[in-house]
Amino acid sequence: MNAGESHVKDSIQIIEKLFHCHICMHGYTGNMKFITPYHLNPVCTMLKKKYPPFIQDCFHFEATTIRSFLLEGNDSIVKVCPAGLLEVAVPVVVNGWTDGVLFAGPFLPDDSPGENRVVAKPYSGIREDFRLPKLKENQIGHLSGLCRLLADAIAHELEHAPTVAGEFPEHVRHYIQHHFHLNIGLDDLAAYLKLSPSRLSVKLKEELKSDFRTLVNLERMNAAEKLLKNSIFSNSEIASRCGFTEDKYFYRIFKKLKGMTPREYRKKNGTGRISS
Questions:
Q1: Each residue of 3-56: pLDDT tens digit?
Q2: What's the predicted TM-score (pTM) here?
Q3: CB neighbour class for 197 (10 Å; exposed up to 12, middle 13-18, buried from 19)
C-alpha cells in the first residue's frame, strides 16, 4: 500500500469515528481493493442473514436509486433503505468513468424530509430495535462533503497510479487492466508500448501465448464475474461496463469461457437476482 492509499484509509477511519458509521464501497472495476466491499457493515449483514426476503427488496431499491443517481449526475444522494435506515452515497469518478459508489452509514433518519433524498418502500417484516446514531439534517451536508473529498482522493489515486515497472508481460497486463472497459484495440496497446501492431502480435504469441482480443476478454470476464456476484446491475449493464458493445457477444464469450450463461452464473454465485 502506497502513501496515498494509506492516507485514504486513515481518512476513512476518521470519518467513521466522527460520525459513528461505516464507510463501504460498491466498486465496479475492482481497482480499489483496500476499501470494504459493498455493504459489508454489521447492520446490513445481520439484516440479510436474519431476513433473507429482505435481500431482494434491498437490491431492487439499490438498482433504482443508484441508476437514477448516476444518470442524473448527482454528486451525492441521501437514501433511506427498505429497513428505514439512512445512508449517504457519493460516486467515485475516475477519468470520467464511475469506478464505484461510497456509502456512509447506516443511521437512524430524523423526521425532516430533507433535499435530494430517496426513500424506499418499507420492508414490513423487520422487527428490530436499531441502536444507531441519528443523522440530523444539519449533519448530512458535512458528511456528504467529507465523503466527496474522500471520493476525490480515491479517484486521484487511481488516476495517478505509478507507471508499471517490469518486462513486456507486466506492461501488457497493466494496460489491459486499466482500459478493458473502453473500446480498445491492438493499435491502442501498440501505441502505448511504442511497437508496431504486427510486432506486438508476434510478441503476444511468443511471450504470453495468446492474442490481444483473448487477453482483453479474459480481463473483461474477470470484471463481469465480480459484478455478477456483488452488484445490482443488470446483465446488459454489466456487459456495457466491461467494454462489450453487444449483449449477445458478451453472453457468447461468457458462456464459452465460464461454461455457463451470465444468468446461470449469477444465480449460482451472486447475492442479487437482477439479471435482465
A1: 777 888 899 999 999 999 999 877 655 555 555 554 467 888 788 788 888 777
A2: 0.64
A3: middle
**Max CA distance (Å), the chain:** 66
Predicted pLDDT at 273 = 44
Query: Is residue 227 within 8 Å of 220, Cβ to Cβ?
Result: no
CATH class, range 168-183+212-269: mainly alpha
Region(s) of the chain under CATH 3.30.450: 3-159
**In CATH, what number does 3-159 get?**
3.30.450
89-98, 123-132, 184-193: which has the highest mean pLDDT? Answer: 184-193
- pLDDT per position as a tens digit, 132-158: 999 888 899 999 999 999 999 988 887
